[in-house]
Specification:
about 25% strand, 38 strands, alpha/beta, about 350 residues, 12-stranded mixed sheet, 10-stranded parallel sheet
Length: about 350
């Protein structure tokens, strides 16, 4: 719940700091008790609409107020709603949640007595260490960083300021974590890369994985995601990148700044992703590829070759530029009709041949 005295006017004045063009339509005194999705919002709730797909709910919702994007046509669709119109409703709603519904802090100050911490570890006094954590030798943990219960950080790893590591995160040795990094439960950072040399007798010899993993500032790693350490050198996730749950990033990969990768995607070893790319769910990359900046890859794309032109949209398996892939998809949709026509032509040819053979 929010403050009992919060009004839509308070929210409007907050948003004016970021969106000076913001427009209030309706009663500024409208009380705001909570925040909710537009489909399930009730009286006293504030909701938002940033996508045209949700415009239809404006006339149905029971919310008291909504933040809406300026590009949406809401005229006559929300007669009962008080509105705040802004350029980007999604970002505006995020700002409101940050101010009026901050994340719950579930860790007590200081170090829990059950945590095991090596004598040579350096932990800032303002850091929080939860129950049953293990902190190895020469680990460094920066100011205001929170390490939740049952997390393991092995020797030599450095973690910056204001990071959050949720329960059961495992960070192997000698990894480098920047500032304001969030790592969700079950993620494993710095496990060995998948490197094995085939032998003449059919066995595989393990290649020592002696590199590291670097997560730069403001990176977020989803639950149960695995980022392998490099064979030599580093696997690097650059500043501002956001990686979803259940993503696999192989050894010596590089993910560019502000790139986003959705769930179940997989990067084979030494794949290099550019800046500001958008990678859909279940996209797979063969190894040693390079992807240019601002490339978008549709869900389930199978990327088998490098993409060198910035800003392109590729999809399909194997992945191709969007227009080319759509043409091929359209052709595949006509295969059944083409087969029927081919069978009919073959039948006609056989009949003509039979008539020709019957001629004296």
């Amino acid at each position: 719940m929010t403050s009992p005295n919060l009004t839509l006017g308070d929210i409007y004045h907050l948003l004016l700091e970021t969106f000076p063009e913001a427009e209030l339509v309706g009663d500024a005194a409208t009380p705001i008790k909570n925040f909710a999705p537009i489909e399930s919002a009730t009286n006293g709730d504030l909701t938002f609409v940033a996508n045209t797909k949700y415009e239809k709910y404006l006339s149905r919702t029971n919310a008291s107020a909504a933040i809406v994007s300026c590009n949406l046509n809401v005229a006559g669709k929300a007669p009962k709603l008080a509105l705040v119109r802004v350029e980007d409703a999604y970002t505006a709603f995020a700002l409101v949640l940050e101010r009026f519904k901050p994340m719950r802090n579930m860790l007590a100050d200081g170090v829990h007595p059950t945590a095991i911490i090596a004598k040579s570890a350096t932990i800032h006094p303002s850091a929080r260490i939860g129950a049953y954590c293990y902190i190895g030798a020469e680990v460094e943990i920066g100011a205001e960083t929170s390490i939740y219960p049952h997390t393991t950080i092995l020797d030599g790893t450095k973690i910056g300021e204001r990071c959050i590591l949720y329960p059961n995160v495992v960070i192997y040795h000698d990894c480098q974590i920047g500032h304001r990094v969030t790592i969700h439960s079950g993620a494993v950072i710095g496990a060995d890369g998948f490197g094995f040399a085939p032998q003449k007798n059919g066995t595989f010899k393990k290649i020592p994985q002696v590199g590291t993993v670097v997560l730069e500032d403001d990176v977020e790693i989803g639950a149960n995601t695995c980022i392998d350490r490099a064979t030599l050198g580093e696997t690097r996730i650059k500043a501002g990148a956001k990686i979803d749950n259940l993503v696999q990033i192989g050894h010596n990969c590089s993910v560019g700044t502000n790139t986003v990768i959705a769930s179940q995607a997989g990067l084979s070893g030494s794949t290099k992703i550019g800046n500001s790319c958008m990678i859909g769910g279940q996209v797979g990359f063969v190894g040693h590829l390079e992807i240019a900046d601002r490339v978008t890859l549709g869900g389930q794309a199978g990327v088998t070759k490098s993409i060198t032109k910035p800003g392109e949209f590729w999809r399909g398996a194997p992945a191709k530029p969007l227009r080319e892939q759509l043409r091929q998809e359209a052709m595949i949709g006509k295969l059944e009709e083409m087969m029927r026509r081919l069978i009919a032509v073959e039948k006609e040819l056989l009949e003509l041949k039979a008539k020709k053979n019957e001629l004296p």
